Amino acid sequence: MSKPYQKFTFKNGLRLVTVPMKNTQAVTVLVLVGTGSKYETKEINGISHFLEHMLFKGTKSKPSTNKLIEPLDKIGGRYNASTDYEVTDFWAKVDARHLNIAIDWVSDIFLNSKIDAKEIEKEKGVIIEEINMYLDEPINYVSDLWNKLLYGDQPAGWFIAGEKETVKKIKRNDFINYLKNHYSSSNTVVVVAGKIDNINELKVDIQQKFQKINRKSPQLRAEVIYSQRKPQVLIYYKKTDQTHLCLGNRAYNMFHEDKYVLDIINTILSGGFTSRMWTNIRQKRGLAYYVYTYGNADLDTGYILTKAGVNNNKADEAIKEILNQYKAIKNKRVPAQELRKAKDYIKGRAILGMESSDALASFYGNQELFENNILTLEEKLAKIEAVTAEDVQRVARDIFKPEKLNLALIGPFKDKTKFTRILANALRE
Question: Would you state the pLDDT for residue 427?
Fold first, then answer.
């Protein structure tokens, strides 16, 4: 059976993944680079995200932001970039008739950005305000505190945007060195998904546009180090009208086969308005406006957490109820009907999510970048389908242990004693 994608590796090491789509007039060009804030040192914490900003500040041929984005604005194109702990991406989505414009634009910012010293100084103010914005938004900032709690003073525990003091000190030469050391053909994947008329011509175009890409072997990052033998609590005191929290456990990395079982557990706990968390935390008890559970699997770490915004006076009650749901899925086998529902939910959301070219590009590109192996949607859903109720209980028992519990919380609290006590007594048989 033929694959819905093709993969090519050029002589310089750059990989190209093409994903033709029928019944669409759109096409997305996505560039993924295997670097992010986990690859930084303390002195330049935030540079991965800062560099993402700088790539929009002009290239040699289009020396200003306006000149750079005007070609895409003229044709109604969409474009953006993002930085995470282990990946940075840049993309453009256009009417397929303008595919050449999207390729030109993405390759230009990737290879020819000026990184102008004056623009660096101006952009520092923008990034500092972005950091201030997140500090003022507990619903977002609590997620950063969660990573800080799990990983401490190492890149995995630092903020992606950096600290204001480190951002202020970053210089042009830091960017140049970072590009040389981390932006390389061997850790870069280009994905083109959508309406593709001629793949052979596309290959030639990509090869030519990216022929100047750096071929130096990228610097590796340090392995994430952690040790946890008892529950951990991190409280950030803030006079808020609502307590925002992340509560969960360490779990698996992206190469662990039980990650598919964890997908099922996430869905049972938080897949839609009839899920366990929503029903018990919001509908029955009225403890939260938002509450959802999700998992994360990186190259060498992973976790599952429930995030919620709750009444300050009922924070301990909400925490206990979240823990009750963890305990329930651990101690009692999931009924067949609920397991079937979770599988169908995952399947339905996955199929709906694959209807756009940018979603397809991300789906295939991230697999190729991180795992150097691509499973089709059908192959992934087959792994979901194979999960049994016994698997769910086995994995829940492995993950939901008291010593693996973590709570990050923002609210008007100065003493973490009662929260530590709640966690210490939770999830026991």
Answer: 72
